[in-house]
Amino acid sequence: MAFKLSNSLKGATSGIARTIGEYDRRFRTTRRDKRERTPLDHKEINDLYYNVVTDFFEFGWGRSFHFAPRVPGESFKASLARHQHYLAHKLGLGPGMVVADLGCGVGGPLLEIARFTGARIVGVNSNAYQLEHARKYAEEAELTHLAEFMHCDFLDVDAPDGSFDAVFSIEATCHAPDKVSIYGEAFRLLKPGACFASYEWCMTDRYDPEDPLHRRIKADIELGGGILELDERRTVDEALVAVGFEVLETRDVTVPTGPSVPWYQPLVGSGISLATFRSSRIGRSITQVSLRLLEALRIAPKGSVRVSETLNICAVALVEAGRLGIFTPAYFIHARKPA
Questions:
Q1: What are phi and psi of 21, to 5 degrees?
Q2: pLDDT tens-place string over residues 3-16
Q3: Residue 15 is inside which H or E element, if any?
Q4: Residue 303 — left, alpha, or beta (φ > 0 → left; ψ -120 to 50 → alpha)?
Q5: Neighbours of 3 (CB within 10 A)
């Protein structure tokens, strides 16, 4: 495991200690600042965050940086693919369509959906380090004919109005400064009559902002997840209507309708498989010990332990939030731009 970890961090961006320190300072300062937050605040914090966490995510989770509902007997990898296929199916994606993926990460879901549907997908990402990975993975998968990437802010996509047959986002729009701005951009990019779908991180109706425990859990998810403000479900619903969408469906797809494995189970470790060991509580503890040793030996970049500690804060909080039912990583939205 230590060998795999050190190998994963070989491509890590230089200056991890400086970058994670700057991220922590900027995040906390912006949260305390009384002035109105700007899109630039969010963009700069997002960039600092993903410059240091991307390699850790790929090591511990894989190339699809998201959660998924899961049924007994289903593998972790299969649940992620099914989650992606469900979104593609709801949008009716197919050959000949041109689709935008807002906040595409390193392109794991994009490539899976392109392979599954035959649609040409344009991944939008403001983080250059992640796009390096995404382009490399597209070439390795021999899917460059279906995968294109744009280096720009997903609030200001370099494309004319009505450019896309569909737009989707998977657990990425939580990084926008507000839902109206990001949903408004999705609305602009769509052709009339076309649809937008997303899995949204948000607080559920069980969240009580007056409860100190709930507030602490929410704050830990935000710090460890690079999110300045997690919205509540009703804020998501209201924003869709505000920008002009016809809302077709909104629901928390993590709420079980039959036998199921909790979405946060890979972070716990109960009934873990080899595929999810590194993301489990025990796996994360071993990672921490390994990183301390690797840093001391100057094999892992200085600052790696601090990044791991930040991500572990988020992981613990996500499990607490999941057990209490106050948060969901998969509030599914499906909306149409009027013809």
A1: -65, -45
A2: 455 555 555 555 88
A3: none
A4: left
A5: 10
